[in-house]
Amino acid sequence: MTQPAVSTCLWYDNQAAEAAGLYCSLFDDARIISEHPQRNAEGNVIGTFLIEFELQGQRYTGLNGGLHYKLSPAASIAVHVDSQAEIDRLWCALLANGGVESRCGWLTDRFGLSWQIVPRALPRLLASEDAAAASRVMQAMMAMIKLDIAALEAVARG
């Protein structure tokens, strides 16, 4: 397989393989592509240096780079879903074991990676020709932690 011209590299202290394993377990169309070992001066494998993985066709590289850099909410992975059940499933899985909720459908997982869990209905509701409805949806979304599709649709209806 030819490597894509553009992919995303995510910097971890030393948990890239664990993070990639979690992320791949959450999506049907996900896989570990390759793992590159880290070796000591004697040539012995002491861990993973790079792990390449794919989530629904998007390639990522997890780099165990140490404590020098940290992931930040300035960059996040947005996941667009069809149902509240899918929002709830991803939300719980990504928060497990130390993740932190933010607002407006954002969270940070236990590895420090930011995610946006977004219902596909949201852009449609925000783009309504009814400016008042779109404004109500925006205000409701801004007040939410985890997005609630039924609540957003209800405020859109007035």
Strand-helix topology:
Layout: E1 8-12, H1 16-26, E2 30-39, E3 45-55, E4 58-64, E5 76-81, H2 84-95, E6 100-101, E7 106-108, E8 114-119, H3 121-126, H4 131-143, H5 149-157
Parallel strand pairs: 1-4, 5-8
Antiparallel strand pairs: 2-3, 3-4, 6-7, 7-8
Helix pairs in contact: 4-5
Description of the molecule:
The chain is an alpha/beta fold. The chain has five helices and eight strands; from the N terminus they run E-H-E-E-E-E-H-E-E-E-H-H-H. The chain has helices spanning about 15-25, 85-95, 120-125, 130-145, 150-155, and strands spanning about 10, 30-40, 45-55, 60-65, 75-80, 100, 105-110, 115-120. The strands form two sheets. It has a four-stranded mixed β-sheet, with helices on one face. Strand 2 (about 30-40) and strand 3 (about 45-55) form a beta hairpin. The longest helix has 13 residues, at about 130-145. The chain is elongated. The model has no long low-confidence stretch (mean pLDDT about 95).
* Helix share bin: 25-40%
Query: Termini, distance in Å?
Result: 51 Å
Tell me, briefly, the overall form: elongated
Average pLDDT confidence is 95
Structure in a nutshell:
With 158 residues, the protein is an alpha/beta fold. Helix content is 32%, strand content 32%.
Which labels suit this protein?
single chain; 158 residues; alpha/beta; 4-stranded mixed beta sheet; 32% strand; elongated
